[in-house]
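ARCHIVE RECORD
Type: protein–small molecule complex
Small molecule: zinc ion
Source of inputs: curated submission
Record status: active
Notes field left blank by submitter.
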Amino acid sequence: MASTFPFARLRPLDGAVELAAATATAATSTRPEAVTALLCVLLDSVGDQPATRQAIRALPCATREWLVQWTAARLNPGLRWFEARCAHCREPFDLSLDLARPIWRAPDEALTEISVATSLGPRRFAVPTGEHEEQLALREPGADPRRDVASLCGLSPAADEEADRFDEHDLQLIDEALERASPDIADMAAARCPSCGRDTECCVDPLLFAFPREADILSEIHLIASAYGWDHDGILRLPARHRAAYAGMIARERRAQTSMARR
Ligand SMILES: [Zn+2]
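STRUCTURE (tokenized, with ligand):
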């Protein structure tokens, strides 16, 4: 359904936007906070709304992951190969993936709250969003992640205490109901490990490799400014591809000069 499928618009990407994204992400302490910071800076709009912090935090978790993959693919159009690690023998291997078309599945019924008939009576729960994800990442994890979610998303005034009293069947019902009301995204890739030959599942996190890093951008700025004498803001206005290309040419030229001088 086109109306419920996430769609977004990126801001025009120049060095200033990239540097702002890198700085905002570096200042966060948990992954969900980094996702919020990154999407707020890089996206102009999501659906028909401006990509404000509030709007990004209100999105379901899977929709945020979809946006991370989609944005990563737009920033790195040629990116296809990733290093994955086998879950059985722990050997690294190369995995080919197309991030440009992440698979997103609409929920059976898109709801923001669900009701579950628990052993304590009917209870309501909020369907987890980025805001819940951020809060969960700051909490000390309990023995059962389903209990943590029940306590965080429970809408009863005694949700914390009730989460401890839910039995196994309650936790299962709550988990299933939340899953049915949430969109889903394929962020695991199936592969056969070339080392041990067993089937393995790899989790792909574009946050670890697909977004600009503050140190890299600053080092490109330094290289271009010291070679051409251009000012900082002028360099930041260059499209990212051009900045990287200039920095690459200068670095190659300097390497050639150094090796000539050694002869
Ligand atoms: Zn293996």
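CURATOR ANNOTATION: The first helix runs from residue 15 to 26.
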